[in-house]
UniProtKB/TrEMBL annotation:
<dbReference type="InterPro" id="IPR043502">
    <property type="entry name" value="DNA/RNA_pol_sf"/>
</dbReference>
<protein>
    <recommendedName>
        <fullName>Reverse transcriptase Ty1/copia-type domain-containing protein</fullName>
    </recommendedName>
</protein>
<dbReference type="Pfam" id="PF07727">
    <property type="entry name" value="RVT_2"/>
</dbReference>
<dbReference type="InterPro" id="IPR013103">
    <property type="entry name" value="RVT_2"/>
</dbReference>
<feature type="domain" description="Reverse transcriptase Ty1/copia-type">
    <location>
        <begin position="3"/>
        <end position="142"/>
    </location>
</feature>
Length: 235
C-alpha cells in the first residue's frame, strides 16, 4: 500500500508498509472480519455449527437461540431474552443496525399473517421470467413432461453452456422455497456439462410452470397441521 498523504516517506526503495490490521478492500478482509465475528460469538457462549459454519447456536435452560449470517447480514431467532442480550452485545462489538422482524433476506420474502410465516420468492420469479423474456409465455400446469426422460444428445445443435448453467443455478436457488419444482430442477441439473436443445426445452417448461405459480412458497403454521401436499409422476 502507499503511505497516506502527510506521512513523510523515509523508507528505502523496495521497502513496503506492514499493516497492523485488515483494511476494507483487501482480499483477506472478509476472512479477517468473519474470524473476529466468530471469536465474539464464542465469547458470548455460542457454538459454531459443524455442518454450516455461518450458523451459531446457544442452548440455555432448554431454550435454543440461533443466528445465521451471510456476509454482514444476519438473522437471529429463538429465546426472546437471549435475542435481546445478543443484539446489545453485538452492538457493543460491531457497528450494526436492527431492522426489526424479518421481511426480506437473500431474495426470499417473509410476510407474516395470523396463520403463520410464509416464505416466497415471487419477485425473484418475476425477475427471472423477465430476464429470460418469458413474462408473456404460455403457462403450463406441470413443471415436467409426463414419462419424459432426458439423456445426452451429442448430435443435437450445441447451445450456450454457460447461459444454461446460470439459468439452472437460478432455478436451484429458487427450489429452496419451491419443493414443487425440486425434481424437475434436479433432472435438468444433471446435464450442466453438456446441455442440448432438449434440455433447454425442459428448462423452458419449468419457466412456463412458474408463470402459473409465481407466488407459491412455503408456509409455517403457528399451530400443528398434518395436511400433506404431494406431486408425483408415477402411474
Amino acid at each position: 500500500m502507499d503511505p497516506l498523504p502527510g506521512i513523510p516517506v523515509t523508507s528505502k526503495k523496495g521497502m513496503v508498509c506492514k499493516l497492523r490490521k485488515s483494511l476494507y478492500g483487501l482480499k483477506q478482509s472478509s476472512r479477517a472480519w468473519f474470524g473476529s465475528f466468530v471469536a465474539s460469538m464464542r465469547k458470548s457462549g455460542y457454538v459454531q455449527s459443524n455442518s454450516d459454519h455461518t450458523l451459531f447456536l446457544k442452548r440455555r435452560k432448554c431454550k435454543l437461540t440461533t443466528l445465521i449470517i451471510y456476509v454482514n447480514d444476519m438473522i437471529v431467532t429463538g429465546d426472546q431474552a437471549e435475542t435481546q442480550n445478543l443484539q446489545k452485545y453485538l452492538a457493543s462489538e460491531f457497528e450494526m443496525k436492527s431492522l426489526g422482524d424479518l421481511k426480506y433476506f437473500l431474495g426470499i420474502e417473509v410476510p407474516r399473517s395470523k396463520r403463520g410465516i410464509f416464505l416466497s420468492q415471487m419477485k425473484y420469479v418475476l425477475d427471472l421470467l423477465a430476464k429470460t423474456k418469458m413474462l408473456d409465455c404460455k403457462p403450463i400446469d406441470t413443471s415436467g413432461e409426463q414419462n419424459h426422460k432426458l439423456g445426452l444428445y451429442p448430435y443435437q445443435v450445441s447451445i450456450d453452456k454457460e447461459r444454461y448453467q446460470r439459468l439452472v443455478g437460478k432455478l436451484i436457488f429458487l427450489a429452496h422455497t419451491r419443493p414443487n419444482i425440486t425434481y424437475a430442477v434436479s433432472v435438468v441439473s444433471q446435464f450442466m456439462h453438456s446441455p442440448s436443445e432438449d434440455h433447454v426445452g425442459a428448462v423452458t417448461r419449468i419457466l412456463r410452470y412458474l408463470k402459473v405459480t409465481p407466488g407459491k412458497g412455503l408456509i409455517f403454521y403457528k399451530y400443528d397441521r398434518t395436511d400433506v401436499e404431494g406431486y408425483t409422476d408415477t402411474d
